[in-house]
């Protein structure tokens, strides 16, 4: 653990603030509605209303901010070293709420496949409401039962090794998306070149197995690591990992089943950006903007979080390891912003 018990706040300083338990599920419950407001604002913009631009900007900013609210709540709740059952549930729900964007997208695809796309908002609202009720009635009288301490040494090494394999593919994928800044044709040309490698008959199954292992091992480690309190850096790492678990599940479901099997179409730039309408103007596809933005951010930031743990394990000074992680997070924010701007239509023109 990167922090000592003395670094964590006493139980009483957090347990007395019950409203904090519900901040994350409330943020996740609200999440779909700013996206709906954004789409309504695009209609106002089309009529020339200036207020449409303001509503659109504020709505999208709020949608992106709500998972951050959940993250901040999780960081605060993780300062309790020996949580009660209620606090432990609130902590885990807060970490899950950080993944509201991929969860909303995944559930949306499921209801699309079921032929009832209008029910996805009702479903996620009920889900977060039920989790809040579960927190309310969970036991807050005694510390929750904990499993025996487990350093996850071998699991962490295997998880890291699988991550290196997957990150090679992600480097191809992200660089391909950056070519979208030049244009659809440039992206398509690079995609066809890269696919010779990562869609080879023997490579793709290995990649899928790598993703599956990362999901299973990451979920197991996150479950055990949340039993005890930790610092904000480790909480950020866990939250990023949980986000990526659901982002990968959502992405694979959309690519492997929705596109390839159900629709029988290619998962190219047009599919990723919601062409011909685009992500910005489509009522359903607008959810992809915060989902992709935070997804790209957490991929890179989670990698640097893992690097921080490796540095600390090999004797690096904590201020140095923390700085490396923060610089990596700043780079992740820049990269994810450029990628999402390309996917939303930003183009570079060279003279």
UniProtKB/TrEMBL annotation:
Signal peptide: none annotated. It comes from the Bacteria. It comes from Duganella aceris. InterPro entries: SQR/QFR_C/D. This is Uncharacterized protein. The lineage of its organism: Bacteria, Pseudomonadati, Pseudomonadota, Betaproteobacteria, Burkholderiales. The keyword RNA-binding does not apply. Keywords: Membrane, Transmembrane, Transmembrane helix. The chain crosses the membrane at residues 20-41, 53-73, 93-115, 121-139, 160-182, 202-223, 235-259, 291-311, 323-348.
């Amino acid at each position: 653990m990167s922090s000592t018990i003395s670094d964590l706040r006493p139980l009483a300083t957090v347990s007395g603030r019950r409203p904090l338990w519900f901040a994350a599920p409330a943020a996740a419950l609200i999440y779909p509605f700013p996206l709906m407001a954004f789409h309504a604002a695009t209609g106002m913009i089309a009529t020339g209303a200036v207020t449409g631009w303001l509503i659109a900007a504020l709505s999208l900013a709020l949608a992106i901010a709500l998972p951050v609210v959940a993250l901040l709540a999780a960081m605060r709740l993780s300062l309790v070293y020996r949580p009660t059952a209620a606090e432990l549930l609130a902590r885990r729900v807060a970490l899950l709420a950080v993944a509201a964007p991929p969860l909303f997208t995944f559930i949306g695809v499921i209801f699309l496949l079921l032929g009832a796309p209008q029910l996805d908002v009702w479903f996620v609202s009920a889900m977060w409401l039920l989790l809040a009720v579960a927190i309310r009635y969970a036991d807050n009288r005694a510390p929750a039962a904990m499993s025996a301490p487990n350093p996850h040494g071998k699991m962490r090494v295997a998880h890291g090794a699988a991550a290196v394999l997957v990150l090679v593919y992600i480097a191809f994928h992200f660089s391909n998306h950056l070519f979208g800044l030049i244009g659809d044709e440039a992206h398509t040309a690079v995609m066809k070149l890269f696919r010779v490698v990562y869609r080879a008959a023997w490579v793709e199954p290995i990649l899928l197995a790598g993703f599956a292992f990362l999901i299973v091992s990451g979920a197991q480690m996150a479950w055990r690591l949340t039993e005890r309190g930790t610092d904000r850096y480790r909480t950020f790492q866990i939250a990023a990992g949980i986000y990526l678990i659901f982002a990968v599940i959502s992405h694979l479901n959309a690519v492997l089943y929705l596109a390839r099997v159900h629709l029988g179409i290619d998962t190219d730039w047009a599919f990723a950006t919601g062409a011909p309408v685009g992500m910005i103007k489509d009522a359903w596809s607008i959810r992809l903007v915060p989902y992709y933005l935070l997804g790209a951010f957490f991929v890179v930031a989670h990698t640097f979080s893992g690097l921080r743990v490796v540095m600390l394990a090999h004797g690096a000074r904590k201020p140095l390891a923390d700085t490396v992680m923060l610089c990596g997070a700043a780079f992740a924010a820049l990269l994810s912003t450029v990628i999402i701007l390309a996917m939303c239509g930003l183009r570079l023109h060279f003279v």
